[in-house]
Amino acid sequence: MNVTVGEIAAQVGGSVIGDESVRLTGLNGIRQAGGGDLSFISSARYMRYLDESKAAALLVPPSLREAPMPLIQVADPYAAFLRVLDRYQPSRAAHPRGIHPSAIVGENVVLGRNVALDAHVTIASNAVLGDNVCLYAGVYVGHQARIGSDTVIYPNVSILEGVVVGARCTIHSGAVIGSDGFGYAPGPDGPRKIPQVGNVILGDDVEVGANTAIDRATFGSTIIGRGTKIDNLVQIGHNVEMGAACIICGNAGISGSAILGNGVTIAAAAGVAGHLEIGDGAVVAGLSGVTKSIEPGKVVSGFPAIDHDRDKRIVVSMRHLPDALQEIRALRRRVEELEKLSNGTSKDHS
Prior knowledge:
It is a single chain. This protein has 3 domains: 3-88, MurE/MurF, N-terminal domain (Udp-n-acetylmuramoylalanyl-d-glutamate--2,6- Diaminopimelate Ligase, Chain: A, domain 1), CATH 3.40.1390.10; 104-309, Hexapeptide repeat proteins (UDP N-Acetylglucosamine Acyltransferase, domain 1), CATH 2.160.10; 320-350. Helix content is 17%, strand content 26%. The chain is built from 4 helices and 39 strands. The longest helix is centred in the last third of the chain and has 29 residues, at 321-349.
């Protein structure tokens, strides 16, 4: 990267305040940026770093007009920074190429064009891989699994029997797609396992984080909709149906047979009970526990999860609870004193 402030502004549709000829050689965060780096400010909470930043130039909202360095004003500084990042610093990943001698390919496997199988990949019989699929070392693909074109699967992922993975998916290290759903029935000798004979279907453009587990359906399919992004260490139970473009953050847990609409956000470490429905565009705040279905567009938090604004008022009120209890005790003592005085006055009049 070796471009001027003016050239970056033209690429992102921004307006420059300051010297357009300043050259930019790198990209970095506002606190880490050094000479030659382009950075950005997208939130007021980062304004405190403005005077001390060593960035050569900043992408900023139109409201910011003064700074020690040249500014590029854009409507969305973060989005503009991502565009520049994608153009000048693409992924450093060096994907495997070809088929490693230690890879094991079972009977009747169909491999598309330009498939890459790294060391110790195992593909069971009757699996199908589309064009340009890339499997890193130690990946296991089960019997009759299907993986769509241009999908990348990182080391030590297990894609188990009958799983369907869409095109252009990314699955990170250690994820397990298609493990048995957690289903048991009471029996005279203890819990009796219910056969898990369904599968998992990942739509196109899905991303699954490291060490995430998505269970196969008891029957039918566990479904992850197109464009959904799932963070690390997430548990998704059997027969969950998830719509398109959902965001599921780290350590979240979604119990069996829950249904999530399109564009749902489940924040970090939140839990959703089984057999609930989460409407389109709903947001579940971090650490929340959802015990009832949520209407479309609602934002909820707390345990049990309720309307987020109401939950905030409750939390603020609880912070005042010790003082309120002291005040109540003082008022109670004052009432008791007044009652004693009133009773004494009554006796004197009698």
